Amino acid sequence: MNKLDLRQTILDSLEQKWRVAQSSMQRAVESATDEETVPEHKYDTLALEASYLAHGQAVRVQECEREIRMFRELELPNSPQHVVLGSLVAVVDMSDRTQYFFVAPCAGGLKVELDGTEVLVVTFQSPLGQALKGKSVDDELEYQVSSTTFCYEIETIS
Fold first, then answer.
1. Most buried among 1, 31, 69, 148, by the most CB within 10 A?
2. pLDDT by residue (tens digit) across 88-124?
3. Helix 3-33 vs helix 46-73: angle between axes, to the nearest 10 degrees?
4. Start and end of every Transcription elongation factor GreA/GreB C-terminal domain (predicted)?
């Protein structure tokens, strides 16, 4: 799997998320500044609530822009010996199923598909990311989320 293509697929997904956030922010701003939201009495808080929503949507747009910038600047290591930022890791679970994880500085939890293969973006802040950090091929890792324990063996790191 080509990591440059994977990064572009992730960027495309993040840019789509940004477009949705941008559109939501624009609608919230229009609502906050609409003449129908002007308070009619001191207990009418529609305009105030609309301005809070607009602010929240603006923060969301900024977060999307930060994630896109971080992915564009992410250096992709060539043949790393250990799991580091920018690594694509293939692991095998106890049922001999192969799963793919891309270690990134942000956007953890995002799932993308490339060449018919699903890849989950993980960060080192997540339990899985912490378990992966610094591991090598053939290392086993185990981590727990709530009461569920997950066990994997690292098949490849690219």
1. 31
2. 999 999 999 999 999 999 999 999 999 999 999 999 9
3. 160
4. 82-157
Closest C-alpha to 73, from 89, 85, 88:
85
| Amino acid of residue 49 | E
| Spatial separation of the C-alpha atoms in residues 70 and 158, rounded to whole Å | 20
Which of 34, 27, 25, 84 lies closest to 56, judged by CA?
25
Kindly report, residue by residue over 49-88, the tens digit of the pLDDT. 878 888 999 999 999 999 999 999 999 999 899 999 999 9
Exposed / middle / buried, residue 65 (Cβ in 10 Å: 0-12, 13-18, 19+): middle
Whether domain 88-157 has CATH 3.30.460.10: no
21 in the Ramachandran plot: left (φ > 0), alpha (ψ -120 to 50) or beta? Answer: alpha
Q: Per the structure block, which two tokens stand in for 108?
A: 């953890």
3-state secondary structure (DSSP) of residue 79: coil
- What is the domain partition of the chain in residue ranges? 3-73, 88-157
- Inter-CA distances, 137 with 10, 140, 141, 158, Å: 24, 9, 11, 10
Q: How many CB atoms lie within 10 A of CB 64?
A: 20
Please identify which residue in the block is written with the tokens 């992410």: 74
